Amino acid sequence: MLPPRFLNVETADVPTEVHRIMPVSRLVELLTQNRNTLVYPPIWNDPYEAVELRTQQAYPLFKDSADGAIKVGRPFVGEPIRAGTLVYGTPAEYQYYCQSWSAADESETMWRAYSPNSDSVRISISANALLDQSSLALPDYAIYFGKVTYWPRNVIESLASDGQANRRLQGGRVREGEPWGRSWALSLLKKRDAFRHEEEFRLIAIRGQSLMSTKIRADLLQHEIDPLSLLSRVQIDPRCTKSDEIISEVRHVGFLGEITKSSLFEPPNLHVWNSSHPRDWIP
Hints:
This protein is of the alpha/beta class. It is built from 9 helices and 14 strands.
């Protein structure tokens, strides 16, 4: 049985390693500053990120025809006249952060999407070690690591439009025996089918109850880690033309593990030996 910090995954499905494509400069920064960075998902390109936590509750406003006053919870003397809309912001705003990883095998699609200049690297780390270090570094946060589930677009839209359910979710109500932040984390693990090829896993940090009353509008959440103990290997974009420079740069900042260039675009061997004699046979 997995501890509750793993979500949407059975014991046998927890990947030994997860992967992430990033610019070399980001890897060097990670190795020299010993800081991991999570992001507030609404700033990502996908407009459907965290929709259940971002929906706002809207209510009609009416004024009294007798005295012109807008009344909420008070009886009207005259006739109610529509006077606009009252929109409540979400209490979940800036209370959660994520970092994306992938369990997918190497793919051309991922290289093109996340290495637009053909010079990025794909790092591989231990999911368990990342979770352990993040939990120690962020004691005031609920830390989860979960497998993203993929849904048809209309289902995601339906979830976003359920006002009552989202109001309960955003309020942070916790069922008896449920760890803090679990329902929010599960909602952050829903994406549209169009992203299924990414086979994404997410590191998720939910601000603890003691922090909820203090709202800080920060797009990034950083914490200390030991990257050399996490990082198992580095792979260079198969289209890259400056592999030697990248290897030198990464070695210079202390990484001694495996660094290879992807062989994804290496041509097959088309020189086939068509003889019953061995290649080194001399008559």
